[in-house]
Specification:
alpha/beta, six-stranded parallel β-sheet, 19 helices, 14 strands, binds uridine-5'-diphosphate
């Protein structure tokens, strides 16, 4: 039997979108072996015009160094009316690219793991084709999810939290289009969560000192250097593990510093589950992927910063569910670590249990199942079809409510 096709719409703006697509693909390959062919499309890179095509490069420096202008843009478009306005512009500017995308990537099910592309791609189907493949949105932000996620024509919109689900209803989606699944985390992540001793042996970490893992998403974002130095100045009885991610300059700066406690510096790592299995405390910006992984691994979180806009609500989500605390800036982080270490191993074990209670290790399997179900369905009539077959009833070409 011919394999069905799954196309993922994503972009390397931050690490989370690709991580989500990789996770879902892996789960589908395990659950439905040899049934699917997968394609990952970096939409910004390949199908938008200049300057959008450089978003994968621009995103991290922008969020890092000009957070307020990022927040302004994000919040400006985050209402029904202004969101619609911004999308109307995007649809026009990106029209040719999106039409090329759907021609070059015919599929049995379209899966979007990026908020920006839902409307423009749906618009391309609605204006050029009578039928389109079933379309599934998998939201990869946690709580303060942007209006752009909620394209009302989609067949399924899978939300990570109740708050994200409720926002979908607010922006016009129907309950039957939505489901709360949790955020997809790679099946290998669960599989590789070995016991702490074993993970430390494999990683060559000290086996006695509590391990504090410091990470700033895939890009090494946020003031990681300042936080590391503030922790260092406390001379705590611990070991410090820093992941610089793709931030080469940060890695070099960290490597040329001297440290008061055993300290290991990694570039972008491909064995995050091992590192989380070995860690006692995770210090991170409030990235959704990292938060969900830490909860599954049972590592309590110290959130040191958040990307304004899409990560605002992640802090509340973690704090209200007792999975961690918010401690902005190096001094607060170092003080919190010191307090947690003073509580001893029992205190850390209790914090670990609270974090684990928030984890949703089954999310990726539920999402895989939803996509599989959609892939079995026949193509869906588009609005174009309705317009050209008046007896089916006229639907306005652009009925988007956002
Ligand atoms: N990550 C990784 N290796 C690294 C740093 C990060 O695999 O060296 C992964 C991390 O495990 C998570 C993702 O990158 O799955 C980061 O996603 P998150 O949503 O936390 O932040 P983003 O980078 O998207 O802002």
């Amino acid at each position: 039997m011919a394999r069905k096709r799954v196309v993922f719409l994503m972009s390397d703006t931050g690490g989370g979108h690709r991580a989500a697509a990789d996770a879902i693909r892996a789960a589908m390959e395990i659950k439905y072996p040899d049934e699917y062919l997968f394609e990952l499309v970096d939409v910004y890179r390949r199908y938008t015009p200049f300057p959008f095509t450089y978003m994968p490069e621009v995103y991290a420096p922008w969020v890092n160094w000009a957070a307020h202008s990022w927040e302004f843009g994000y919040e400006f478009a985050n209402t029904r009316h202004r969101g619609r306005l911004v999308m109307a512009v995007a649809k026009q500017l990106w029209k040719n690219g999106m039409r090329r995308l759907i021609q070059e990537h015919p599929t049995d099910v379209m899966v979007s793991v990026h908020s920006l592309f839902n409307r423009p791609v749906m618009h391309a189907y609605n204006t050029t084709q009578k039928f389109r493949p079933p379309f599934v949105t998998v939201i990869t932000d946690l709580v303060t999810t942007h209006a752009f996620w909620y394209e009302p024509d989609v067949d399924r919109c899978l939300a990570p939290t109740q708050a994200a689900y409720d926002r979908g209803l607010f922006f016009g989606l129907k309950p039957e289009q939505m489901r709360i699944t949790g955020l997809p985390v790679h099946p290998q992540f669960m599989k590789k969560l070995v016991a702490k001793d074993e993970a430390r042996r494999k990683l060559n970490w000290d086996s006695h000192h509590p391990a504090v893992l410091l990470v700033g998403g895939g890009e090494g974002m946020g003031p990681l250097y300042q936080i590391a130095r503030a922790i260092n100045s406390r001379k705590l009885d611990m070991q410090l593990i820093i992941i610089a991610g793709r931030n080469q300059a940060l890695k070099q700066r960290l490597e040329s510093s001297s440290w008061n406690q055993p300290t290991i510096i990694y570039p972008f790592v491909h064995n995050m589950p091992e590192l989380m299995a070995a860690a006692d405390i995770l210090v991170t910006k409030a990235g959704p992927g990292t938060i969900c992984e830490a909860c599954i691994a049972g590592v309590p979180l110290i959130l040191s910063s958040f990307v304004p806009g899409q990560e605002d609500g992640n802090v509340t989500h973690v704090v209200e569910n007792n999975a961690g605390v918010y401690a902005p800036g190096g001094v607060n982080v170092a003080e919190t670590i010191s307090q947690w270490l003073d509580e001893g191993s029992e205190g850390l074990a209790a914090r670990s249990a609270s974090a684990r209670a928030l984890g949703r290790p089954n999310a990726v399997w539920e999402i895989a199942e939803e996509i599989h179900l959609q892939a079995q369905k026949p193509p869906v009539r588009t609005r174009y079809h309705a317009e050209h077959q008046p007896h089916l009833g006229h639907t306005p070409e652009d009925g988007w409510v956002i």
